[in-house]
Amino acid sequence: MNSSNINQIVLIIDEVGYPVLMAIGMGYFIWYVWKYVTKELKPKIGASHKTLIKLLDQIRMLDNDLIRLQQKVNTVIEYRKQEELKKQGQEDEDSTVYINDMGKSNDNK
Description:
Blueprint: H1 3-16, H2 18-108
């Protein structure tokens, strides 16, 4: 800075006072930050908001798919249990028939 610029700054401070000059500087700073936020950040926040909504929708869809898959797995497990019980019942029935047949054959002798 040259001496004429410094003299102008000192003259302005002397005329309006230091607090008024700082208030003007603070106003400029607030205006600059507001401009930056509205021009730069707001569009990026909007885009990230849309992405967040898409991700939440995908998570909900995956959750629904998991619920349906779990229901199918539970159905298959229940079906297998019933098949095992049927198989066990037939084996018990076959062994009962075999024991009865043995008793009849022993009675005939």
